[in-house]
Specification:
Two copies of one chain form a homodimer. Chain A has about 120 residues and is mainly alpha-helical. The first copy, chain A, has six helices and two strands; from the N terminus they run H-H-H-E-E-H-H-H. Chain A is elongated. Chain A starts with 6 loop residues before the first helix and ends with a helix. The first copy, chain A, binds a DNA duplex (30 and 30 nucleotides) through helix 1, helix 2 and helix 3.
Chain lengths: ~120, ~120
DNA sequence: GATTGTATTCTACTCCGGTAGAACAAACTT
DNA sequence: AAGTTTGTTCTACCGGAGTAGAATACAATC
């Protein structure tokens, strides 16, 4: 059972993934600065994340805690992309990325090691 | 300058990518069958694709021709995903896919060849 | 060239994600 | 304890993607 997070909800989650448990107030501050959101916008999105089970409030201080790992979210989003435009073939997506001209030598090196370590 | 295609527009483009130049009528037939779209819905989407420069009509028969390659569309969508949830790091996306358990041996083999042919 | 049928465009409704103001609750100050 | 500030929720507007009916243009047939 996967939780689909909208783009704006991902912004909330990203703060938690980057900073760990965080108060709503602090999240609002961060997103105010990062994307100019009104405080109540942030609170609304936090509420929605709670409602769909992506966030829980924990004591002390009623802090926000993520119930979804970034890996889970990435997996879901990536699967959607693959189904949407890669005909469900994950290796085509990888091939597409490797085919780009804008990978740094470091990234290429990392990927070589990664792929060759498979199996 | 990239053309952003919405999900429904991608359905139109996909018919062209799979079948080459196609009449509007035929596209409507295909999508009627594949996703149950009303004929006019398909025509509307074709029109929008034309308006944003993703499709042109060519003689004879006023046929629809794609002006965007699937590779271009894939690159755009993939870049958006990477920026949305992978902090802009393409290699993390690849790592995430490779980390899954659902790649077939054939796919892995293909990828190894691909990676090792780089540079 | 009037009539019928078909291809295309125009126009508009609907639903939902994004955003935030207003209302409310809790805590703090004097 | 009344008043003030701060944290949270309730409610609702807005724009845009998705969808399709109505209207129009075009082609074919007689």
């Amino acid at each position: 059972m996967q939780i689909k997070l909208f783009d704006s909800e991902l912004k909330i989650m990203d703060v938690l993934w980057k900073n760990g448990d965080t108060t709503a107030k602090r999240i609002a501050e961060i997103l105010k600065e990062q994307v100019g959101w009104n405080k109540t916008t942030t609170y609304t999105l936090i509420k929605r994340c709670i409602d769909k089970g992506a966030i829980e409030r924990v004591e002390p201080n009623f802090v926000c805690r993520s119930l979804v790992t970034i890996e889970q979210a990435r997996e879901l989003e990536t699967t959607e992309l693959i189904n949407k435009i890669y005909d469900g073939a994950a290796d085509q997506l990888v091939a597409s990325i490797l085919g780009r001209k804008n990978l740094s030598p470091e990234e290429i090196e990392k990927l070589k090691r990664l792929v060759n370590s498979l199996e």
